[in-house]
Write a structure and sequence with these properties.
- By secondary structure, the chain is an alpha+beta fold.
- It has one domain: Alpha-Beta Plaits, CATH 3.30.70.1700.
- Helix content is 23%, strand content 38%.
- It contains three helices and five strands; from the N terminus they run H-H-E-E-E-H-E-E.
- The chain has helices spanning 4-7, 15-28, 88-104; strands spanning 36-39, 52-63, 70-84, 115-126, 132-146.
- Strands 1-2-3-5-4 form a five-stranded mixed sheet.
- Strand 2 and strand 3 (70-84) form a beta hairpin.
- The chain is elongated, with a radius of gyration of 18 Å.
- The mean pLDDT is 86.
Length: 154
């Protein structure tokens, strides 16, 4: 017989997932923007859900070897911003600047990261059913874990 406390295991987040959640919380903390913030959403966004942001990992590269007690990581995070309107790229730029400021306000994300750097911004305009803009901002977040444990930060 399984006890109720064993039916749902308690998950311990990796440092990587903790960083992604910290990014989500900083973007959710923007007031008066009307942004809907999602973490790795796969369903299509509806018109009434815009403006919206989807935050997801792109890649995570580790450096180091087993001769050290730690491993350095470079997590690439995509922050995709969706806006609609007569000049959606203009609206997107104002929101993108606020998102960037929120992420860069604490370059260590509350002690989870060693640093955060904006690396790339791309734009895609779509003209079907009104004009929409997707602005994709990428950030490299450097962090460190013990060589043998991705759940513990250093």
């Amino acid at each position: 017989m399984i006890k109720k406390s064993q039916a749902t295991p308690k998950y311990i987040l990796s440092v990587r997932e903790s960083i992604l959640q910290a990014v989500v919380e900083r973007v959710r903390g923007l007031s008066n923007t009307g942004l809907k913030v999602f973490r790795s959403r796969r369903a299509a966004l509806g018109r009434l859900e815009l403006p919206a942001v989807i935050i997801e990992p792109v890649s995570d590269s580790g450096e180091g070897d087993n001769t050290t007690i730690y491993q350095d990581w470079q997590l690439l995070v995509s922050v995709r911003l969706f806006t609609r309107g007569d000049a959606p790229d203009v609206a997107s730029e104002a929101l993108a600047a606020q998102i960037h400021s929120a992420l860069m306000a604490d370059g260590q994300l509350g002690g989870l990261a060693l640093s955060i750097t904006g690396t790339n911004v791309t734009y895609a305009l779509e003209f079907s059913e009104g004009t929409a803009c997707e602005t994709q901002m990428e950030y490299q977040i450097n962090y460190r874990t013990p060589y043998d444990n991705w759940q513990q930060r250093m």
